[in-house]
Write a structure and sequence with these properties.
about 10% strand; 5-stranded parallel sheet; about 180 residues; alpha/beta
């Protein structure tokens, strides 16, 4: 047994657990968070989780817990059925999230509730197809409204890079390439 009560608590109880956030720490950009890490001469703690696996309430609790445990940035994967750049573990996680009914809109709604409580920025990892289906401008605006600070799009087509970067800048999102 770890002796850490948070490690043995159920996801439901974690959802209500208060998260200590230092004054002035909320709303850091990805660049600011990484600068803080570099100033301290530390290695960044950047965990990855798939949104909606096993459900959105657990994802919200996991975001709060990772923040409380000192994550510098959290990378949140948007589940996608054709995840070409992912390994078997993340593909399985995405399949579970999709089977549980995770949608982009539901994930954005969950993030809108959770991100104001976090001291670390959240970066969304998404493939380009769901972004293109929604529309780049609409996706970027929804991500900003959800309190997300950055985006990773591993299969962003070169021809779309400039337009997508413009939407990211317009919405104060850092595009991690």
């Amino acid at each position: 047994m770890s002796g850490n009560p948070a490690a043995t608590a159920s996801a439901g109880s974690l959802a209500e657990a208060p998260v200590p956030v230092a004054a002035g720490e909320r709303g850091l950009s990805v660049s600011q968070a990484m600068s803080k890490v570099m100033e301290k001469g530390k290695t960044a703690f950047i965990p990855y989780i798939t949104a909606g696996d096993p459900d959105l309430a657990t994802s919200a609790a996991a975001l709060r817990l990772l923040d409380a445990l000192g994550a510098d940035v959290v990378e949140l994967g948007m589940p996608f059925s054709d995840a070409s750049a992912d390994g078997v573990v993340i593909k399985a996680s995405a399949a579970r999230a999709l089977a549980a009914g995770a949608t982009a809109d539901a994930i954005m709604a969950m993030l809108k509730e959770v991100t104001p409580q976090l001291s670390c920025p959240v970066v969304i990892f998404s493939y380009f197809s769901p972004i293109a289906q929604r529309g780049m401008a609409s996706f970027a605006a929804a991500v900003k409204e959800a309190g997300v600070k950055g985006l990773i799009v591993p299969d962003l087509p070169y021809a779309e890079t400039s337009a997508f970067r413009d939407e990211a800048i317009k919405n104060e999102l850092e595009l991690v390439i």
